[in-house]
Write a structure and sequence with these properties.
It holds the Pfam family TB2_DP1_HVA22. With 135 residues, this protein is mostly helical. It is built from six helices and no strands. Helix 1 crosses helix 2, helix 1 runs parallel beside helix 4 and helix 2 packs across helix 5.
């Protein structure tokens, strides 16, 4: 029985990097090489959500250490984000992240005057003659 738990623990530990990094890395490269933008949106959304999750973990590390099932919950959540059946990352981005960025006027193409929060304006200053366009 001990060998079974050791194997199960090893699989659980190895699943994290595969689900959270290896597969998304591979899928992102494939998405960039396809003509469609749907997969680009999914994988850009994934990296945005994953970055937020990682930053949150860094900030709340001392609290998260007291939650014994955190890694398992995170693994399940990230699996939902990456599995093609769900498109969870695009869903979260469209429903939560995009709305918050719109609400706070972060998108420069929405208004004629840049209304970025001051901290973002100091980090990403608007340069005259340059438009913020993707592709």
């Amino acid at each position: 029985m001990t060998k079974f738990w050791t194997l199960l623990t090893a699989l659980h530990t190895g699943a994290g990097p595969v689900v959270m990094l290896v597969y998304p890395l591979y899928a992102s490269v494939v998405a960039l090489e396809t003509a469609t933008k749907v997969d680009d949106e999914q994988w850009l959304s994934y990296w945005i959500i994953y970055s937020f999750l990682t930053l949150t973990e860094l900030i709340l590390q001392s609290l998260i250490e007291w939650i014994p099932i955190w890694y398992s919950v995170k693994l399940l959540f990230v699996a939902w984000l990456v599995l093609p059946q769900f498109h969870g990352a695009a869903f979260i981005y469209n429903r939560l992240v995009r709305e918050q960025f719109k609400k706070h006027g972060v998108f420069p193409h929405q208004q004629s005057k840049p209304t970025k929060p001051k901290i973002l304006h100091s980090i990403f200053p608007h340069r005259e003659g340059h438009e913020a366009h993707s592709h």
